[in-house]
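Running co-folding for glutamine.
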Amino acid sequence: MKTRFIFITGGVVSSLGKGLASAALGALLQARGYSVRVRKLDPYLNIDPGTMSPTEHGEVFVTDDGAETDLDLGHYERFTGVAATKSDNVTTGRIYSEVLGKERRGDYLGGTVQVIPHVTDAIKKFVTADLNNEDFIICEIGGTVGDIESLPFLEAIRQLGNELGSSEAMFIHLTLVPYLQAAGELKTKPTQHSVKELQGVGIRPDMVVCRCDRPIPNSHRNKIGLFCNIMPNAVISALDVDTIYQVPINYHEDGLDTQVLNHFNIGSSKKPNLEPWRHIVRSIREPEGEVSIAVVGKYTDLPDAYKSLSEALSHGGIANNARVNLNWISSEIFENEDTLEILSDVHGILVPGGFGQRGSTGKMRAAQFARERLLPYFGICFGMQMAVIEAARSLAGITDAGSTEFGPCAEPLVGMMTEWHKGDSLVRRTGQDNIGGTMRLGAYPAELKNNSLIANIYGNTKIFERHRHRYEVNINYKKELEAAGLSFSGLSPDGLLPETIELIGHPWFIGVQFHPELKSKPFDPHPLFSSFIAAAIDQSRLV
Ligand code: GLN
C-alpha cells in the first residue's frame, strides 16, 4: 500500500489535545492492521526544545538516536509503540538553520532565498523523508491556526496536499466546542471561524474533531458540517476523559478511524480489537490497591514537566493492579528539616531528573530519609547523583562530597565528563561548548552486575536506556562507596561511567543515570517502575 499522509491542525485555543488525538489515531489505525509513524512540526524558533525551561515547554522527550524533542513524541511512542527518531520532530528554527546553512554554502546558486519555495521545500522534504513504507504518516502541526509563526508549515502541507491529492493526503482540524453556561448551549461559532481561518490559507479540512465537555447533538454536527463544507459524520467529538487511555476508544466509537479509511477509500476489512485498551482503562479505574509516592523535584506545580514520569508511574500501577497517587513535592521545602516528616506517610520516594543547585539539598535529604527509614527510593539521573552525594557524605564520611554542576568542589563525587564512547566513536566535550544539544544524549548500553537487585528486576544484565545529562558519578570513588554499602551495580561497557547504583541491605534503593520513564508503555510497563511500585505496595502493608 502506498503511504498516506494525515495532517492534524488545531484551532480556537491551544492545549486541546492534538498530540493525544494524533497518537490515538495512530493506535486505531494500527489496531486495524496498518503501520504508522507519527511526526510533529513545531513552529517556534528554538532549534529544539532542549534549551527551553520545563516551565516553558514541559518535558523534553529524548529519542534513542539522541534527539531532544517535544513531549508529544512521548505520547506517540506510548500509544503506538513505534520508537520516535530525530526525523519525527522539527522546529521552524531547525528548518531555517538548514536553509541558511545552505545559503552560506552557496547551494542556491545565486538565487534569492525565500519562504516559498525554499523554506516550504525544506519542510516538505522533512515530512516525506526517512520513511519505511509506512501505510500512514500522521503529521501534527504544533500551535494554533492563525498564529503568524505556523504559516510556513500550513503553506507546506497545503502544497503537499495538492501534490499528493486527496487519495493520499487528508486534513483533520481539531477545535473547541464550548458549552456556555449562561446560554445553556454548546456553541459552534468558534469552530466555524477557525475552519474559515484554515480555509483562508487554502486548506479545506476533510474532518473536524471537536473537543467538548459533553456529547455533541446531531443538530450541532449538521450545523458544523454545513458551515465547514463536510459531511456531518466527518464531525467527530472528542469528549473530556478521566484517563488518556480512554481516548482511542472514544474516538473509535465516534467513527474517527472509519471516516479516515472512508476518506482514502480503503475498505475497512478488519474491525479493530480495542480490548487491550479497555483492559488498561479498567485497571486504571478499578484498581485493587493503592499506594502513594512522593515525587520530590523542582517543577512540581507543572505536571507536564514530568509527563513521561507520571505516565511510567501509572504503568507501574497497571502492572500491579494498584492506583498510584502522586504527591508532588517541591524539594525546596526540605531546606527546613522539620518538614521531612511529611514523607513518613508515603510508600516510596522518587527524585526525578533535574538541573542546578536550587533545591538540591532537599533532594539529598529526601534520599537520606528513604535510606534511613528503609522506604523504597528511586533516583533518576539527578536523583541518582543526589543519592550518591548523600551516601558519600553520610556513609563514607566524605564530608565535602559535591557536584561540579554547583561550582568547583573539593570532592567531586559528580563531575562533568569530557570524553565518552558512543559505539565505536569517541565523543568529546569542553566546558565551553554551546549549551544546546551537547549533553550525553540518547540510548547507550549498560552492563549490570550479576545477581544485583537491578539485574534481577530487568531479568537481564545488558540494557539499553536513554540519557540526557552533562555530569556523571565519578568512577574514582567506586571503591570507597562500595566499601560503605553503595554498590555500583551497572556500568558503561568500558567500565568508566556508573550507570546504576543500589544500596546493599535496603529493600529497594536504586539510582539510575538514565531516564527509564522514556521507554515505559501502558502495554509494556518499564520493569523498574513495576518493581518500584511493587516495593511501595510491600511498604504499604507494613504501615
Ligand atoms: N543536571 C544533571 C546533569 O546534567 C542531571 C540531568 C538530569 O537529571 N537529566 O548531569
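Result summary
Residues 287-415+473-542 form a domain with the Rossmann fold fold (CATH 3.40.50.880).
The chain has a mean pLDDT of 93.
Job closed.
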